[in-house]
What does this fold into?
Amino acid sequence: MVRKPQPPQILCVVGARPNFMKIAPIMRGLNHPQTGLSGKLVHTGQHYDAAMKTTFFEQLHIPQPDIDLEVGSGTHATQTADIMKRFEPVLDEQRPHAVLVVGDVNSTIACALVAVKKGIPVIHVEAGLRSGDRTMPEEINRVLTDQISELLFTTEKSAADNLLREGVDSDRIHFAGNVMIDTLRYNLAQAIPAMTTTSGLKKNGSRLDLSNGYGLLTLHRPANVDHPEVLQNLLSALVDISRDIPLIFPVHPRTRQRIIDAGLEPMIASSALYMTGPLGYLEMLGMMKDARLVLTDSGGIQEETTALGIPCVTLRENTERPITVEQGTNTIVGNDPRAIHACVADILSTGGKSGCIPELWDGQAAERIVETIALWSNGSL
Ligand code: UD1
It folds into this structure.
């Protein structure tokens, strides 16, 4: 009996929350019967809580991972090393045609490094973004992953300039658009309204009133939350702002721990800053879509607010996603209270800057990526 040749297997890696929205359309694309490819999924277990992981798999219809490395939390070195140790035997067993990694988290660099040393080509989706700030762990992960990738898919034009400057061969760089925006567009009609998500929120016995609008806040970067003084200054500015507009604050687990450790809960309790647990994707999308403004230190949210046309105040000194500032609705303000106040006051009085949708943020990025991988895997690129 002649055995049917197996389609080239692309082993896809996810680890942390922002990876899940990026992998969903790629897995759908890879496993489409016409591509001639097959996608398998490895979850490293970097994020493991239901709120940080399971909800996203369910809401985004990501197939259950074929392999779960269950590494959990740790220092950067421990987490990265554990992922590498556990990923190596998976590659020996699966022998994939390529390993596909997304974004810039520890799982991204750990799996890319194991693959390249075994001679397995690495595909990096969301390549070339640079904040220029090497104190950010993600920046190190980006630079290193790009250096060892065979195919690099970019979301905005500045990324190719960064890569070329770092000596990456132009033949390997492909401007594909933004897979995170594929997921946003695919799910927008299912977004859960803010009213539903916040219906249980109360302070001093009275329910949160959204009739004059609300702001949405997220914070989790080490630079903002790991130093008690910085966190206190930032949160007291936000508490002040909540006198003008209620702020809803879905809290990342590391941030919650830092707030408790710094004794900042009472200050928040007596304000119109409403803390919730981490939200699912559809809840978060609904919250962003109807917000008057979003304050954040996340990378992905800067892009999502640009796609939705919602003003975004970025509580960082820099961004690796400059197109969200140049063309989108994003303003970089850092963590200085005066700058935050001024930017929020402007948005509340004028509606903030208007933006446009960047090139190729059209919902078809994963299709372009999968087509290119198919051509590359049969040698026709
Ligand atoms: C990671 C990524 C960051 C991304 C963020 C999104 C790196 C270097 N950082 O940061 O780029 O923006 O994810 O969330 O990869 N924890 C839980 N439950 C979980 C996961 C984490 O309670 O399911 C807690 C643990 O206390 C853990 C801490 O959060 O120590 C930090 O988790 P970790 O994955 O190390 O980094 P993040 O800050 O989430």
